[in-house]
Model the fold of this input.
Amino acid sequence: MAELRARFAEELDYTHEAEVQSRFAAIHTGDATIRVPAIVLGRTTRRVLTSELATGLDFDAARARPPEERAAWAATLWRFVFGSLLGHGLFNADPHPGNYLFQPAGVVAFLDFGCTRQLSPDRATDIVEAHRAAARGDEEALFEAFRRMLGVPSGQQERRMRSYVQACFEPLLARGPYRITREYAKSLWDELAQGALVQAWGSRKEFVPLPADLLFLNRLQLGFYSVLARLDVAVDYGALEAEWL
Done:
């Protein structure tokens, strides 16, 4: 609850959002397809956020475009999300379809940086190690990274964790183009729901709570995959991550 309160309170402070948006812009400076609107500092206060105007197709219009265009946009979305996370331990926890504007040649403008999270250096290192393990196809090392992060005991929670992590990393473990579908995105929700039921009815001694600083990482994971599912194209996400790993 403290984590929820802190992140949502930040969304009410546009000075904070302006700082974070400027940081994301700096991270992706020079990228040919990622656009983060610049902040107009002289016209931004705690209650007013002013940035340069961004234009482009909305999400529904983008979904109606040919597959090759959608694939280019999906690749840009992945590079934005995981480039910031793996390179800087920073992520935008609000992957909402209304927060993207789609332009020609795979260019995407990214809006709304109110709900973000900076991971600790140790936590960020664990995330990178998990993605490196997935890139090698080393599932045991992948599970070990998450076991370390979550501190899960052996038993039901560990089995649920392995099942969920394997599902989440399926686009990378596939070793080639992978099409994220609505059915796949829904299966992640189902995995979490089933895990919650098992935990609710199981022995308290077999479970540990989710670390607070990872709460919004789940929001990113599920929300982002739902966005990609609606674009409905196959992309080699592992090849994209190879640039950073």
Observations:
- The beta strands are 34-35, 90-92, 100-102, 108-110, 116-118, 178-179, 234-235.
